[in-house]
Design brief:
This is LLM class flavin-dependent oxidoreductase. InterPro entries: F420-G6PD/mer (IPR050564), Luciferase-like_dom (IPR011251), Luciferase-like_sf (IPR036661). Keywords: Oxidoreductase. Pfam families: Bac_luciferase. The protein is of the alpha/beta class. The chain has two domains: 233 residues, TIM Barrel (Alpha-Beta Barrel), CATH 3.20.20.30; 73 residues, no CATH class. α2 links the parallel β2 and β3. The chain has an eight-stranded parallel beta sheet. The mean pLDDT is 92. It contains twelve helices and twelve strands.
Length: 324
């Protein structure tokens, strides 16, 4: 199983990518959620300038956030810095990038159309979009790499429609928490922290480093109406912590510190017991067992997302556990 990393893009992500490269991580996905994090393409290019081997790309970009020509130009810019062999492009329908701005995810047909248009632009073709014909016009390598520009695509999907689009595009698949064995390259995004010997899974350090993973599962459950199934006893109580916020503004509170830390409304429900049960706070041997199960279930790569105040520690501990 390949070991990669995913970053809730920060102003320090370029440095974290350098550390990850030195630790042997093969790829680094940078989240594209502009309501939450700095510009993903700027940070990817900064990371490319500070690394030599690690493969870089957005994980994952949301089509509605940028015109396809803007995305094609951004991809070309990253290729000009890192090289095509170190560039990948993740795309999705907008679980975080859109929900955090009060919008539902895009229809998968729109995602597919967007990828096809961007890919055609990168090949140097003329494309019709929004009633106009366009083409990448950069005349020479002072402005953009020569077309065609070929980059691999990774589609974030967790359902039949998304999987179908992934197959249609001939792309890799990226899933969250649940493996998919139907693809030759199947990346799974996971969260958590490696416990020290005898460490309390409910300690402040563990909550800071792994609590974000439990929060995002709780958020997903309430947004999809399955919180009662996930937490039959405390689920309604947790959901009620947001009842005082008008529905049209609730997404703002739900995404407070999303995938970065635990917000004040979630904190009473983020316990060491739940993080252990959810596979987020594990010893090195327990992480190895978890990775073996994910690989047996069809995952070919794990994209581990560290969090908390000490990202280098999380990257180092996970790499040591995974490669022991």
């Amino acid at each position: 199983m390949r070991i990669s990393c995913a970053f809730a893009t920060s102003l320090d992500s370029h440095e974290h990518a350098r550390i990850a490269e030195n630790l042997g991580y093969e790829r680094a996905f940078f989240y594209d959620s502009p309501a939450l994090y700095p510009d993903v393409w700027v940070q990817l290019c900064r990371a490319a300038e500070r690394t030599e081997r690690i493969i870089l790309g957005p994980g994952v970009l949301i089509p509605s956030l940028r015109h396809p020509m803007v995305t094609a130009s951004a991809i070309a810019t990253l290729v000009s810095v890192a090289g095509a062999e170190r560039t990948m492009v993740g795309v999705g329908s907008g679980f975080t990038g859109r929900l955090s701005m009060g919008k539902r995810p895009l229809p998968w047909a729109k995602v597919k159309e967007y990828v096809l248009v961007v890919s055609a632009l990168l090949r140097g073709e003329e494309v019709e979009w929004d009633g106009g014909i366009m083409k990448m016009l950069a005349p020479d390598d002072r402005y953009a790499p020569a077309r065609p520009i070929e980059v691999p695509w990774v589609v974030a999907a967790n359902g039949p429609k998304g999987y179908g689009v992934t197959r249609d595009l001939g792309a890799e698949v990226l899933t969250v928490l649940v493996p998919n064995a139907d693809f030759a390259s199947s990346v799974i995004l996971d969260f958590g922290t490696v416990l020290e010997d005898g460490e309390d899974p409910g300690s402040a350090r563990v909550v800071d480093a792994a609590g974000h993973g439990l929060s995002v599962v709780l958020h997903w459950a309430v947004e999809h109406g399955v919180i009662d199934e996930l937490l039959p006893e405390r689920g309604p109580e947790w959901a009620a912590a947001y009842d005082d916020i008008p529905k049209e503004r609730r997404h703002l509170a739900l995404h407070d510190r999303h995938l970065v830390a635990v917000n004040e409304r979630d904190r009473p429900f983020v316990t060491g017991e739940l993080m252990v049960t959810g596979g987020l706070a594990l010893s090195p041997s327990e992480w190895r067992d978890k990775l073996a199960k994910l690989e047996a279930a069809g995952s070919t790569e794990i994209a581990y997302q560290p969090a908390g105040p000490d990202i280098p520690r999380e990257l180092e501990a996970f790499a040591a556990a995974a490669r022991a």
